[in-house]
Amino acid sequence: MGVNYVLLVSRQGKVRLAKWFTTLAPKEKSKIVKDVTQLVLARRARLCNFLEYRDTKLVYRRYASLFFIAGVDTTDNELITLEIIHRYVEILDQYFGNVCELDLIFNFQKAYFVLDELLLAGEMQEPSKKAVLRVMGQQDIIEENENAERGWGDVNIESVARSLQLYAQEARQSFGV
């Protein structure tokens, strides 16, 4: 199973996460992101979640307002890749408690940490959701301890992000968006 890259793209075409498991020039990465985003966003909901792009296969799935896209080798199994994407979303869901796009914007480093625990060099590293969540919990404890040592102990980024998210939801409701 060789995942070449993972992209999280909003419906508006904004890249929320990009993880590369192959070495490419920055221009090539930008071209791939642009092309893949256009290809996936242009597809109707009822179409197949697999498509060919250059020498790779794109496997994607939409969750709420985000498209989770994996570029894999043409010989790889698409259904296993869909399962990896789903596993990633489930872990994010459990970690953030019903994950949304704002969680990934304000806590992008956590989304990368989860992906790094799940995949290593494009290969499935840890299939156990519990193991990944346990490591993430340990990482959070270490981060809290380091923040407390620096005097940042009373600043909780997650609660600030949640507050901003609630404020944005209230604003959308009051303006009828």
UniProtKB/TrEMBL annotation:
Gene Ontology molecular functions: clathrin adaptor activity
One Gene Ontology biological process: cytosolic transport
Keywords, ordered alphabetically: Cytoplasmic vesicle, Golgi apparatus, Membrane, Protein transport, Transport
A single cellular component GO annotation: cytosol
Encoding gene per record: VAS2_1
Family the UniProt entry places it in: Belongs to the adaptor complexes small subunit family.
Domain AP complex mu/sigma subunit: 3-138
Principal cellular location given in the protein's record: membrane
Subcellular location: Cytoplasmic vesicle, Clathrin-coated vesicle membrane; Golgi apparatus
InterPro entries, sorted: AP1_sigma, AP_complex_ssu, AP_mu_sigma_su, Longin-like_dom_sf
Protein name: AP complex subunit sigma
